[in-house]
Design brief:
Layout: H1 7-14, E1 20-21, H2 24-33, E2 37-42, H3 54-65, E3 69-74, H4 76-81, H5 96-113, E4 124-127, H6 129-132, H7 137-143, H8 150-154, H9 157-164, H10 171-174, H11 176-191, E5 195-199, H12 203-217, E6 222-226, E7 239-240, E8 243-244, H13 254-262, H14 269-276, H15 281-288, H16 295-311, H17 313-328, E9 338-341, E10 350-351, H18 352-358, H19 365-373, E11 377-379, E12 382-383, E13 390-391, E14 400-405, E15 409-415
Parallel strand pairs: 2-3, 2-5, 3-4, 5-6, 9-15
Antiparallel strand pairs: 1-6, 7-8, 10-13, 11-12, 11-14, 14-15
The structure holds one RNA strand of 84 nucleotides.
RNA sequence: GGAGGGGUGGCCGAGCGGUCAAUGGCAGCAGACUGUAAAUCUGCCGACUUCACGUCUACGAAGGUUCGAAUCCUUCCCCCUCCA
């Protein structure tokens, strides 16, 4: 393996963050002798990010840990327009208030991974609405638009793919790479930012920004992309039975987050440890070497470390303990998802399917019934055979009824 | 503006007057096997009803023809291709 002079590039490449770089040697040399400011853009369409954003966040984290300055760019301006790349349905347009509250909410996630402040190496959050909102069309076209040729833009992968598949590409989308390129130059001017990182799908946009910087600001800018992370089975990362894996505890409790990592496929463990934890590489190498059922120990480490980064050590350990008690001892952990149901609602008995739905283990009563028919439902570890089973408050053990849907989805009903 | 093609369940994609809640694939859920893994096999997979081949809602939208329409007709909306 090639050795790099800078900690930054050495770390990013060794841990598997590297996919493409506009000038790897140049960037390495620069990072070895001075503090580099680099940024990644994030969308502000929701009040939380999900694991898909974790990889870029980790890149910013490593930037800071290796002595450089990360910028998280919130797409406040671009979100306002609504990125149409989601194919058909045009995204709902958000107003300023929503966008700003989303940004504030997302910042609390960044706080877990980065140190913010006003110092030379402190991370900052910037909103591109600051400069995009005030843009005037004609001056923008004259100053910026003239540096982009349609010829070149048509060769961009993202554009080519759309054209080849005969899928619509709106003028608005077509302009995205220009706006993103402009963002880069603005950040260079305002914050001396000379590096943009992003997912491999951002390559084209990033390169445009690098070129634009050279043309209008005589700046030497760098682009660096990370590979698209899929699971070993080829699926996109980040989906579970419960839906998206959110990074906000309000949307996905630490226990759920822990379980997401705990259920990683064997073949992914080593890669994920490098990407999503801070563990030293030699330690990861040892964990990765575990074979057979022992690989589960590595998964526990992965889950614990990843959860610690986001939710803190205490919450992570609590989640780990709940998982241990629940799965290894068949008991009940404190951290399991719990639904409170008033005792009087049980009356003479509540239908078991209604209870399953209430506990969030089934999306509807019908789904709960199907689950029972399929033999996947359990109450207090007893398989439920009778669909018409009525549950009374007396079923509870210590005021709690344990419900399971399959082996992994477990919820508690606490009678109050 | 002209000519042609198309809009079907989370996605892709059949169906082209009845037996269509709609073939198939993917995704998802559950069961078996396991290691809270993968692969494989099996079942489920619109919603609602204390579940019966019952009710409701669905095949871009609105009307119409028919005993009966996703399937035929009319109008409208949207997308694609070619021409101007």
């Amino acid at each position: 393996m090639t050795t790099f002079r800078s900690d930054l590039i050495q770390t990013l490449t060794a841990r598997g963050f590297m996919h493409q770089c506009t000038d790897l040697e140049g960037l390495d040399a620069k990072a070895a002798k001075e503090t580099v400011t680099g940024y990644i853009g994030f969308d502000a369409t929701a009040d939380s990010l999900h694991v898909g954003s974790l990889l870029p966040i980790m890149m910013l984290r490593w930037m800071q840990k290796t002595g450089h300055r990360p910028i998280a760019l919130m797409g406040g301006g671009t979100t306002k327009i609504g990125d149409p790349s989601g194919k058909e349905e045009s995204r709902q347009l958000l107003d300023d208030a929503t966008i700003n509250s989303n940004i504030a909410s997302i910042q609390s996630i960044f706080d877990k991974f980065l140190t913010f402040g006003t110092g030379a190496k402190d991370a900052v959050i910037v909103n591109n609405a600051d400069w995009l909102d005030g843009l005037q069309y004609i001056p923008f076209l004259r100053d910026i638009g003239r540096h982009f040729t349609i010829n070149r833009m048509l060769t961009m992968e993202s554009v080519k793919v759309r054209l080849e598949r005969e899928q619509p590409l709106t003028f608005l989308e077509f302009n995205y790479m220009i706006l993103q390129g402009y963002d880069f130059v603005e950040l260079f001017k305002r914050h001396k930012c000379t590096l943009q990182l992003g997912g491999s799908d951002q390559w084209g946009n990033i390169v445009q920004g690098v070129d634009l910087g050279r043309r209008i600001a005589e700046a030497e800018l760098f682009g660096f992309t990370s590979p698209l992370i899929t699971t070993a089975s080829g699926a996109k990362m980040g989906k579970t039975a419960a839906g998206a894996v959110w990074l906000k505890a309000e949307r996905l409790a630490p226990y759920g987050y822990y379980q997401f990592w705990r259920n990683t496929e064997d073949a992914d463990v080593g890669r994920f440890l490098k990407l999503f934890t801070d563990l030293p590489l030699d330690e990861i190498a040892k964990l990765e070497a575990l074979a057979g059922a022992e690989i589960n120990d590595a998964k526990k480490v992965l889950a614990l470390e990843a959860t610690t980064l986001l939710h803190g050590r205490a919450a992570a350990e609590e989640a780990a303990e709940t998982a241990r008690r629940t799965f290894e001892q068949g008991g009940i952990g404190d951290d399991l998802p719990t639904v409170e149901v008033p005792a009087n609602e049980f009356g003479a008995g509540m239908a078991i399917w209604a209870l399953l739905a209430r506990a969030g283990l089934a999306a509807s009563n019908s789904e709960a019934r199907r689950l029972i028919k399929g033999g996947g439902a359990k109450m207090n570890d007893q398989k439920i055979d009778d669909e018409g089973l009525l549950v009374t408050a007396a079923t509870a053990v210590d005021g709690v009824i344990k419900l399971s849907a399959g082996k992994k989805r477990i919820a508690l009903v606490r009678i109050v």
